[in-house]
Structure formats: structure tokens, C-alpha cells
């Protein structure tokens, strides 16, 4: 059993087609080298950019907020078969699985979130961590253990033991070398790590008795599985970025052409109202406030903040007591936010603030907002 707790309920299936990958010629850099030299060179190459490597994108909606883009570089020169599997699951080009489900990550949720460790997704057949299928049907063998789980942002295959890779994968949020020689690393996050952190914070935290997340313990690690409420992270779109042809999506992923700081530390209060998009509290309760009353509540909160000598401390307290966003559990702390990680209006206001500045009250389709930038 993997330390990620990934298990397959169904028996191993016979592949529907050949596992040979016709375009994967031998890696020339491996020739004539010892195992130790190969591992050292592989580690070096994994930290470098190579133009021939494919870039894929995952547009992820977190807790009902508009999707933010995560761009990943895939190590096709190091693990070509594993990369082909993941890349095809991003495009959906292989059609349907033997279970009749699309061989596509689109619409798939991150079913397992372990704070301070990793976020896990890719169960395209069952969605709960007990399923999954490779593009060849069933599972495929471990390709290489040359790389180390030595940094956050690495993409690695989940499994239920040796040579049981399918469609499930995880993204590290911290280094975890204990996974070495057990899981195949095949890529890394280039842009959008803020979104991965947000998944970790919003979907990986559960209050006692909360129905939003169900805590499960595997090998001493407490994992929180998103339930039926808003605290979910879903891949709403995915695919390959065409670097050579100037893919507009590839251009859009690079900070949206914004000037100024590349990231800001924001605190957030959201008050929802009847008629807003997803009019539910973070606990799944109904919203009874009208739009006018929601705006009045936030305006009164802002007046209290303006009069305070300890603005940041009071903002945290007010967010915990009054915000309808899942981040209220963290005092509204969004952490360091990159371009593209928030809905457009919130990003526009947040990146327009100076350090230690409080925003005006503003609205969008999700409700009434107030922001504070600490740095």
C-alpha cells in the first residue's frame, strides 16, 4: 500500500493496446553512464527548462471561485511513457476508459488533500481515490526512480504498490524524500503554485463536526477528503500549451501581462447575498441577506477597521466572525497571491493596493468584498 493511501478496488485490467510509445527514442544522455551518473544527471535536468518538453495547463476551480491556471512542465526526456499518459489525459484524445468514463481530467476533482504534504487527483473512474485508469487500460509499470521528491511543486504518480500506475497523480506542497523509489516523478509546476496552496488551505482544513471534509488517517498522515459542500477543487479545463505557435493560452498564463508586483499578500472578507453566485455559506448553509444588507454589513466592518490602531489583527478577527468565504477559518488570509489565482475583480482590486492598505467595499457576482494588503 502506498503511503498516499491510494488503492484500486477493481482487478488489474489487460491493456487494450500496445504499451510501446513509438516516438520515444532512447535518451542519448543516458548512454555510457553508470546508474549513479544517470541519477545525478537526471536530477540536474529536472531543475532545468528544456524547450522540447510539453507544457500542460490545469484550470482549477477552488471552492466555487473562478478557475485559476496551473502550468506544468512534463519531463518527457526523463520519463516519456509516464508523460504520454498524463499529457493524453489532459487533452482527452484517447476517448473512453474500459469503465466507460472519459480518459480526461476535465471535470475531475482533487479527492485527497493533505495539508503540508500534497494534493491528489486523477481518479477519472470513481472520483474517490479507489479508481483510475491509464490511457492503455488498467495500470502500467514504474518507468524510473531517478528523481527525488525534494521540492514542492513536483508532479508524481500515485499507486497501490510497485508497477500499478494509472491516472492518479499528486502535487507536492513540500519536499518529501520518503517517497523516493516508490513513486515516479514526471513533471513540475511552473506557474500557479499559489492555486495549489489555496487547494491545500481551503480543501484541506476541517472544523470538528464539519461535513465539508471527512478526515481519514493513512500511515500517520491526516488527510482531508472534500465532501459535498463548496470546499472542492475541480479541474474545469485542461490541455497542452502550444509554445511554438504562440498559443494564446500560453501567453495568458504568464502573469496576464500585468505590471507591478508578481505577488501580494492579501486578506479577504466576502459577504454573500441572495441572488449572488453560489449563495451558500462555507458550511453549506443558506444565505438570507439581501444585497443591500450585505453591502451595509461590509461597509460597517470597514468603518471599524479604519478606526482601528491594529488593522491587520482586527481584520483577521472580523473575517473569522463575518466572512462567508472558506478562508474565514484562517482569518481571511489568502497568503501570497499570484496573478491569475483570484477572480478578475478581486485580483484587480488586490493588486491595485499598496502595502498596509485597505480597499474600498466592492461587489462582483459572488458577493460584497473587502480586501487588506499586508505586503
From TrEMBL:
The keyword Cell membrane does not apply. GO terms for biological process: protein folding. Keywords: Isomerase, Rotamase. It comes from the Eukaryota. It catalyses: [protein]-peptidylproline (omega=180) = [protein]-peptidylproline (omega=0). Residues 57-240 form the PPIase cyclophilin-type domain. Its EC number is 5.2.1.8. GO terms for cellular component: cytoplasm. InterPro entries: Cyclophilin-like_dom_sf, Cyclophilin-type_PPIase_dom, PPIase_dom_sf, PPIase_PpiC. It holds the Pfam family Rotamase. One of its GO terms (molecular function) is cyclosporin A binding. Residues 261-375 form the PpiC domain. This is peptidylprolyl isomerase.
Amino acid at each position: 500500500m502506498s503511503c498516499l493511501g491510494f488503492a484500486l478496488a477493481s482487478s488489474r485490467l489487460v491493456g487494450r493496446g500496445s504499451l510501446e510509445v513509438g516516438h520515444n527514442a532512447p535518451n542519448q544522455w543516458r548512454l555510457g553512464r553508470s546508474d549513479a551518473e544517470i541519477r545525478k544527471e537526471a536530477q540536474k535536468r529536472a531543475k532545468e527548462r528544456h524547450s522540447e518538453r510539453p507544457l500542460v495547463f490545469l484550470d482549477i476551480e477552488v471552492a466555487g471561485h473562478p478557475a485559476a491556471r496551473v502550468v506544468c512542465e512534463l519531463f518527457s526526456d526523463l520519463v516519456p511513457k509516464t508523460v504520454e499518459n498524463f499529457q493524453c489525459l489532459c487533452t482527452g484524445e484517447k476517448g473512453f476508459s474500459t469503465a466507460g468514463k472519459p480518459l480526461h481530467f476535465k471535470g475531475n476533482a482533487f479527492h485527497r488533500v493533505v495539508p503540508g504534504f500534497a494534493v491528489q487527483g486523477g481518479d477519472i473512474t470513481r472520483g474517490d481515490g479507489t479508481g483510475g485508469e491509464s490511457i492503455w487500460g488498467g495500470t502500467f509499470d514504474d518507468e524510473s526512480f531517478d528523481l527525488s521528491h525534494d521540492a514542492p511543486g513536483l508532479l508524481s504518480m500515485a499507486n497501490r504498490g510497485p508497477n500499478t500506475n494509472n491516472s492518479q497523480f499528486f502535487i507536492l506542497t513540500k519536499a518529501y524524500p520518503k517517497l523516493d523509489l516508490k513513486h515516479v516523478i514526471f513533471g513540475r509546476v511552473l506557474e500557479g503554485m499559489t492555486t495549489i496552496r489555496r487547494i491545500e488551505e481551503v480543501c484541506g482544513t476541517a472544523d470538528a463536526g464539519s461535513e465539508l471534509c471527512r478526515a481519514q488517517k493513512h500511515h500517520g498522515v491526516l488527510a482531508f477528503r472534500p465532501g459535498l459542500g463548496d470546499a472542492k477543487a475541480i479541474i474545469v479545463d485542461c490541455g497542452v500549451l502550444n509554445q511554438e505557435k504562440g498559443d494564446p493560452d500560453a501567453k495568458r498564463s504568464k502573469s496576464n501581462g500585468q505590471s507591478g508586483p508578481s505577488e501580494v499578500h492579501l486578506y479577504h472578507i466576502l459577504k454573500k447575498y441572495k441572488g449572488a453566485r453560489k449563495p451558500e455559506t462555507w458550511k453549506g448553509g443558506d444565505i438570507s441577506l439581501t444585497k443591500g444588507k450585505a453591502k451595509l454589513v461590509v461597509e460597517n466592518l470597514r468603518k471599524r477597521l479604519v478606526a482601528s490602531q491594529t488593522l491587520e489583527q482586527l481584520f483577521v478577527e472580523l473575517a473569522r466572525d463575518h466572512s462567508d468565504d472558506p478562508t474565514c477559518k484562517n482569518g481571511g488570509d489568502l497568503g501570497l497571491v499570484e496573478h491569475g489565482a483570484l477572480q478578475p475583480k478581486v485580483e484587480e482590486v488586490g493588486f491595485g493596493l499598496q502595502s498596509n492598505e485597505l480597499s474600498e467595499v466592492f461587489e462582483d457576482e459572488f458577493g460584497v468584498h473587502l480586501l487588506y494588503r499586508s505586503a
